[in-house]
Design goal:
Length: 430
């Protein structure tokens, strides 16, 4: 027997698997790292792509807005790179009082003071003003025009009033736009709810029952209207500079890209593919995937990345075990809770999603749809009543989940994913 130990919240979950059934441990490609995180950050800022250094872009007397990700992206280690970005700005003559931070929460909840301290680090948090974007504050938006897809681009007024906008974050696979990072700091990061909804609704084909576009998946931007729409919105905003990190399998910053928000992001996507794009031997009857622990499994909403990646490693109609503590339950956004709890059939869920599309509704819809098409087992602390109208099977331990998976067939083949939120399996069967 093979013992597997996977991250779960701040701890781990253990179970025994018959070793003969294990086809592959799907893990990110090894990264040769001979630089510290600080060296990686500094080297990128000193060598931006298709751009001057940040300190040479800004001038004394100019105002700067730095966009940062919310607490659910704390794994990006913003407290590591934000001080160096501020140093660049100061070196360019920008005074502290002319710098603001906006947490690009998109449609997520506002952050607490403690979370601001964590994101910026205690020293920066004391030095600078930090604001949370509010996508529902129409008076706090400025309208920039419509994209070719018909999306009205309304963006945070505080950000647009600054002379410069600096994008920060991380590049990873994303289930709607292909890759996160870059332009996503703007849309959905600091966009209005209307803008976000219209953009994300481009993920659906036209017509009830037609479902999601084939081009909408992790690792793809070709023919992806969500990606194109976001790029058009970003072009209206005209960000001055971008800094994005790429994380290694060990959870540390393995690389970073900075400079032009389009071409630097392109370079970053290639780096992500070289680390987290994994060619697998075959799809299996069962896949066991951990989100990677806290905060990647802070709630069900965040765990969608793991589920979507895990689907790429399992046969049609197979069994998926997702390990996600979900200490925050389904998530703080009302729409995902409504989508999961208020309906007991997929047709009604789809009608609601189409009537007023939101990303959180889509996430809820996808979890429920996957549970209809696969045997979906969730190892979690989540309240069982929250999932009673779905076909998601809830267990409290990985051992119990494995027992359910193998109850009728002891010979199920299995792929294991220890960092499911990041790793994208690629198979000839795809």
């Amino acid at each position: 027997m093979k013992e597997i130990k996977m991250k779960y919240g701040q701890g781990t979950m253990n179970a025994l698997i018959d070793e003969k059934n294990v086809i592959e441990v799907i893990k990110s490609n090894p990264v040769k790292q001979d630089k510290t995180e600080d060296e990686v950050i500094s080297e990128s800022l000193c060598n931006p792509i298709d751009s001057k250094r940040l300190k040479d872009i800004v001038k004394e007397g100019e105002t700067v807005c730095i966009l940062v990700s919310d607490i659910t992206r704390y794994w990006q280690k913003p407290y590591k790179f934000l001080p160096k970005i501020v140093e660049e700005l100061n070196a360019g003559g920008v005074k502290d009082e002319d710098i603001i931070f906006i947490v690009a929460v998109g449609s997520h909840r506002e952050q607490t003071k403690e979370e601001h301290d964590m994101i910026l680090g205690e020293k920066l948090s004391k030095r600078f003003k930090v604001y949370d974007h509010d996508c529902f504050d129409e008076k706090g938006m400025v309208y920039l025009g419509d994209t070719s897809h018909g999306t009205p681009v309304k963006i945070n007024k505080k950000a647009m009033e600054c002379d410069h906008i600096v994008l920060t974050g991380a590049i990873i696979y994303h289930f709607l736009v292909g890759w996160a990072g870059g332009k996503k700091s703007i849309l959905p990061g600091i966009a209005s709810f209307e803008t976000i909804s219209k953009n994300h609704s481009l993920s659906l084909n036209e017509g009830l029952g037609s479902g999601v576009r084939d081009e909408i998946c992790s690792g793809n931007i070709i023919g992806n209207p969500v990606h194109d729409d976001m790029l058009q919105a970003a072009a209206m905003v005209k960000p001055s500079f971008m800094f994005n990190v790429i994380m290694g399998p060990d959870g540390n910053i393995a690389n970073a890209v900075s400079g032009n928000y389009i071409t630097a992001h392109e370079a970053g996507r290639k780096l992500v593919d070289s680390i987290d794009g994994v060619n697998i031997k075959k799809k299996t009857d069962l896949v066991i995937a951990s989100a990677g622990g806290y905060p990647k499994d802070i709630n069900l909403y965040q765990s969608i990345k793991t589920l979507m990646n895990a689907k790429e490693a399992v046969v049609d109609g197979g069994t998926i075990i997702v390990i996600a503590q979900c200490s925050g339950g389904i998530g703080d956004i009302k729409d995902i809770n409504d989508m999961i709890q208020n309906y007991d059939n997929m047709l009604d869920r789809e009608k609601d999603l189409r009537e007023k599309y939101t990303i959180s509704k889509y996430v809820g819809y996808f979890f429920c749809e996957t549970a209809e098409k696969y045997k979906l087992i969730l190892v979690s602390d989540i309240d069982s009543d929250l999932l009673k109208n779905t076909k998601i099977i809830l267990t409290r331990t990985l051992e119990e989940a494995v027992g359910i998976a193998y109850a009728k067939n002891k010979n199920l083949t299995v792929n294991l994913m220890y960092n499911g939120a990041n790793t994208l399996p690629k198979s000839a069967q795809m």
